[in-house]
Amino acid sequence: MTERLRYATNRPVGYDGMHDSEREIMRLFDAGAGIDRIIEITGLTFGQVQNVTGMFSVTALEEWKIDARAGSAALLTALRQHHPNRCGAAS
Questions:
Q1: pLDDT of the chain along its 91 residues, tens only?
Q2: What is Dmax (Cα atoms) for the chain?
Q3: Domain ranges of the chain
Q4: What is the pTM of this model?
């Protein structure tokens, strides 16, 4: 893994902004561990695990997430039409 760049505050630069515990919860969740198993492994409370998975998991089970994904796709399509040489590749 590449070495992290840091500001004087010792915060990572260019990362996802998640705390290590949040990242671990999502790693376990994405690997298929249920909430009870995540609690057992991490020692966190039900509420903590539920809050993190609720914030960071993206599923099509909630209508607003379907709408958000459709809106993002529509925005990207419009941007690509207006700026064909700028949208679609990481800069």
A1: 344 444 455 555 555 677 889 989 999 998 999 999 999 999 999 999 999 998 887 665 667 777 877 888 888 888 888 888 877 655 4
A2: 50
A3: 1-57, 60-91
A4: 0.51
